[in-house]
Amino acid sequence: MSEKKVYRASTTAPVNIAVIKYWGKRDARLNLPTNSSLSVTLSQSDLRTHTTASCSPSYSPPDTLLLNAQPQPLSDARSQACLTSLRALRSELESSDASLPPLSKYPLRLSSTNNFPTAAGLASSAAGFAALVRSIADLYELPQSPTELSLIARQGSGSACRSLLGGYVAWDHGVLSDGTDSKARLVAPRSHWPEMRALILVASAEKKGVSSTAGMQTTVKTSAIFQTRATQVVPQAMREMETAIADKDFAAFAKITMRESNSFHATCLDTDPPIFYLNDVSRAAIKGVEAVNEKAGRVVAAYTFDAGPNCVVYYLEENREVVAGAFKTVLGHKEGWAGEQGKAVKGAEGVLEGKVAETLKDGVSRVILTSVGEGPVSVQDHLIDEKGEVVA
Length: 392
Description:
Blueprint: E1 7-14, E2 16-20, E3 25-27, E4 32-33, E5 37-41, E6 48-55, E7 64-67, E8 70-72, H1 77-96, E9 108-114, H2 124-139, H3 146-156, E10 168-171, E11 184-188, E12 196-202, H4 212-222, H5 226-247, H6 250-269, H7 280-296, E13 302-304, E14 311-316, H8 320-331, H9 340-344, H10 354-363, E15 366-371, E16 377-379
Parallel strand pairs: 7-9
Antiparallel strand pairs: 1-6, 1-16, 2-5, 3-4, 5-10, 6-9, 7-8, 10-11, 12-14, 12-15, 13-14
Helix pairs in contact: 1-2, 1-3, 2-3, 5-6, 7-8, 7-10
């Protein structure tokens, strides 16, 4: 019977959206960043990757992965780095306890699904590798903490290390050549500032024209302002942002977030050839946030963009009508408002008008309403059944 047994563990992992951006590597092989970063983990009710990891002596090699029912390669260096590290940790347990089944020697069968567009500037790789690492760690019953596992997830996707923790999370760039000090760190749990909300304006669900990996490597080689950003601008922004989060000072949080997003994209534009992640819809979203803040007479909303055109608008729950309501007035016909959060938002007239409103209406395909959330969660909803077959 043991020769056919299928061992399984399933996890959901969150998306995180950085407010201090990671861009550039000091070691590409180990995925070590040139600067620290900081993100908000988003609620898995709205954005998550669900992964089941399974292994069995009855499986035939090699390891396999299905993402949204489509086969994906695991032979790349990043995936192999994660799998090798996790197997090594399991092998250590097996060596110290002969009663444990030799799971590290069995082929892996992985199945994963996203409830959001893949590779479209919505941090799909971060959630994906976080779910992969956490689910295999649970399958192998590893004792390592989320911060320790972040060292492994980082090798798959840099920002994945931040998705192993909930709330407000930093990824310290570290200084050691082996990368053992380049890991995730909890800045504040979700419970510290649970009122944080995010409205995501999906301007494109298409795959990016320039991947993050290719883009940052070109930036490091060609941008004249890159070093100043990495060594001066970001360290100061990290200090200011951690203080803003500790004090729950939204105005400071918002100003740093917008300034940092602009700095990041300025560096992309300073790359040769220049990298254009933003488009006309992105720029209309920026003007929309500026209009919201002007109408409110204070800073109640902040925009930020990762390596893609989708705008993430941060705001506090108390300003829901002022912020989300302004966008609902012009985007209320788009997909994304039907849920409980969307229905609760009342429109705010006279804020977004003219060309800004028209560009958003034409260019935004859907909206996602979400909030600050928790880290990965172990679940019993398996995507692979007890016979090792993928659940349809």
